[in-house]
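Whether sequence alone determines local backbone shape is best considered at the level of individual chains. Part of our work consisted of pairing the sequence of a single chain with a tokenised description of its backbone. This step matters because it turns folding into a mapping between discrete strings. For completeness, the protein is quoted in full, as a sequence line and a line of structure tokens:

_____
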Amino acid sequence: MSQRVRAGAGVLLGCAALAAAVLAGSASAGNDENAVLSPLGMSIGSAPNPVRAVDNRFHLAYEITIVNQSGLDVTINSVRARSAGKKIGDKLVGPDLNGLLRVNGGADTSVIPAGGSAVLFMDVDYKRKGETPKRLTHSFDLTGVDPAGDNPDRQFRFGGVATPVGQEPALRVGSPLRGKRWYVGNGCCDPINAHRGATLAINGTVEAPERFAIDFVQLDKDNKLFEGPLDENESYAYFGAKIHSATDGKVVRTQDGMPEQTPGALDPNATVQTAGGNYVVVRVDRGHYAFYAHMQPGSLRVDEGDRVRAGQVLGKLGNTGNTDAAHLHFHIMDSPSPLQSNGLPFVFERFNGQGKVTNPQLLQTGAALDVDSSTLHGPYANRMPLADQVINFGSDGGKSSR
């Protein structure tokens, strides 16, 4: 074991005389009398904003960035969000917690190694709007293990890691598509998926622009994604579907001229600049921008500076950029940059839920998917769809209030 790791372990483990009286109890943030020297340093970069989803619960989706500043290997045993000292949402333990923890570096483990880092993807939900907290704190239970085995395991229990909670309602938007059986791919809020887990370090700053993003693909009448060869765009019946502006606004960015990709595999040469393929960004208001990605080359019907109305056709659904099948990637963000922005919640004004896909792993095999119509079914207004839901959009797409 290196001297650096051994020294780090010694620093923390040597604090027993100072902290022994409080390590077995809980500590309150800001109270030095109960302060705990914790092995993990944690922070929340973007304050969460509430959104009401089709489960009729409000969701607060956010990320806790974790750095292990000690020489111990640390396991998070439990996490509990609190509002004004009271419990809110579910306590995260065991597999539920581990499924929301990503240890950086690609390690398939729930242990944050000495000097390592991780991200914990939180989804705190509650029933009534009046329960929306103004501020969240968190209670943690940790176990620290000396990698050298020279010292006994240590327990750490404390409260802290505060964040304000935004009080602005989620943006209401119309639908960007028309028709039936649109599958909500990689939607909010858990487990970690291609969008929720896309915390990107751009120019040194970690961003989460795709926190609430949806990949829309359309199932056929047999609940299949495609009919014919997997690697031909024409096998996907919805390829070329019209994409409509979900809001009024002004076009502030476009990208066109990128070629269609071959379905079934991601572009090995994709970069952060090409990931969105051909796209349109619409400024809705000062703090909201709508992003429509992966459009067909040459199909864009708008230019930068154009004013658009809700329902106006922007272009056609394609398979360009970092994609392995035709789809529309849609999300709302707080700046015109698809990369350097913070993902914001939104709700669709009107749609009909058809149920939830129970075997999404079969989506790209061409097999018929099982849709459980006993859940997430029926008409919805001003709700956010959830991952793996199948929804119908009306012929008019609803209208945006902004």
User: Anything to note?
Assistant: The radius of gyration is 23 Å. The chain has two domains: 3-164, 171-393. Confidence is low (pLDDT under 50) at residues 1-9, 13-29. Residues 178 and 395 are 6 Å apart (CA to CA).
